[in-house]
């Protein structure tokens, strides 16, 4: 048991050590989404455990979010509470230990399954457990830490089905299903489908004996699923409102796949990418692969059983190549990178059948096993010989050589075993050592693949800014009794608000309120497509005021009208906005008829603010630019679009402009790409008045701040583009905001403001309405909100299908808003009732047995 947990744990820890990752190391384990998402989400979970926010709702997730839904997708595992022992600043270490703990637990879980399933030597159980825990899928996707939980429960669920079929004992199955669904409804869907197929295989292979188990299996599964509704039901209801549309099937074959994929991805250390254009990660070890094939060639296993498992293999392999099946496993939704997310089911099927094949192996069968090993060698040679010159370039010759060498090693080990050259125990330990060595080499290939593909971020990027940001954020909390928002112009990541506990705009999450994000996109906060991302950077002062951005953090001096410096901490400065609106404000009900064009965010901003304030003011003016000079840039202008093409590769394309800004204006450079698809990770750095600010063009907004000017001023500024050979832009121009008009509108709105004091999942306040009006909040509309005015429940509505609003009568009132995720009460009731029902079902079934 200790070996099954400890060997994968320490092998992975050793591989991390070889690239400089260990507790307190300068290089962190944060790669890919682990840096921006999982570190911050786990930090927010710790905040919730400490009572700093609710487990049901978070004000710190962009404008506000159903936090239980986020937990269900990102944080539902039983290991997550261990983050309590790590301060938020040390979250990289928390994820390091959680990754090792989960990988070790996967090995332990498979050992329990193997020990009670396969009649093989105890060290053989450990050998299979190590192979399972260090399969390519787990390590190659180790940065997606939430997925590992599901692979812990997969062998326990299959063991639970076997116990139900053979021993009429449903408890392991029930609790494994329950923990799986609570940990990850997404992976739970895939494993749920696979486990049903496995049950059908067992049922058909021995229908006469197993048909009586159909009802117990169905009852156990349904009750486990019902109990998991405490997490799943609120998540499903949220996804119905905010989830993406199902992916349209436009082709039959999956992209980038080829007929040699199965061979190539079963070689040692083969890593292509986890971005787009990858093929499935299915490697789980050469020894399991060998015994899986041996399972099909041994004569002691019934042909019917072999055919059924071969059919299950055929379904999985066909899914790799056929788009409809591929999408089905992933909920009919094409994944955003990290493709073929169900590929671990293929690996599990390999190692499961390997266990059954190993059971049948005897020393006198070694010629047949050697024949399998030699056949594998020939197949790998065949695959390498058939690949084209430009195909499978990521399969290095060293991987092929290692694969052949280890197959030869296994031939030698089993040959010595057959000839009694070693004692049985010595042979098993030797075999375990060879498997551990192979697993370590493959793990090294996967980890270094991640390093090259995504890079493991420096710890300092995460930890060094933490004290300054945290102290300044805490200062704002002590200075405010009512709700406000804050944004960092030099963020650590897009999800800083989760970590530091402030409310802002920016967020990168699969769980989001798509309606509010889509509306903010129309108002200039870029959130394109499926609203997976939303960014605060590069919008206007009008939207700072409307969304209640009271504070900005920055590492460079800020020149924004109405923002005054309040504090400094290390590299960061805190600025306070005099014109931020409260969380709610009163306005005329006719505001619901305001016209807001889809593709003209400045007109949308103007119309919205004028409608809310009752004014009719002109805010924005446009000015053409004069090019002063260019550097490493060829400029082409076709009238509507400007194209900048680099002259030397991998050097920034610089263009310098000049313009005279009128008095009392906030100036912005307007940069809108001609084609977002060509941008990739293209960045722009604006140099103005000696200050630089860098943003990613396809993610951040359109209006790059050039500063506030209270007198007529001629400015010269430079834009440096980097990341693509050329970039096309709608003719760049400067947009100016009339700060006099802006100040008048904001003061009018502040007079109508309704400051609210927020609790963990509530908001309260008092207001006085001179007439029947509409109270609009900048709280994202969600059906989980309940509003009471003077203690009486009132209906709510969605302003622009985005924000919570409520009609109010004239007079003085008290308002209370409280949030409860839709379906949560029913989910709790199902959780309790299904646990009780299973208790009585289990007692009845045991007595019957």
UniProtKB/TrEMBL annotation:
Keyword Phosphoprotein in record: no
Regions that span the bilayer: 6-24, 55-75, 95-114, 126-154, 174-202, 214-237, 276-296, 308-329, 341-358, 365-385, 397-417, 429-451, 819-841
Keywords, alphabetical: Membrane, Transmembrane, Transmembrane helix
Keyword Membrane recorded: yes
PANTHER family according to UniProt: INTEGRAL MEMBRANE PROTEIN, INTEGRAL MEMBRANE PROTEIN-RELATED
Protein name listed in UniProt: Copper ABC transporter permease
Lineage, highest ranks first: Bacteria, Bacillati, Bacillota, Bacilli, Lactobacillales
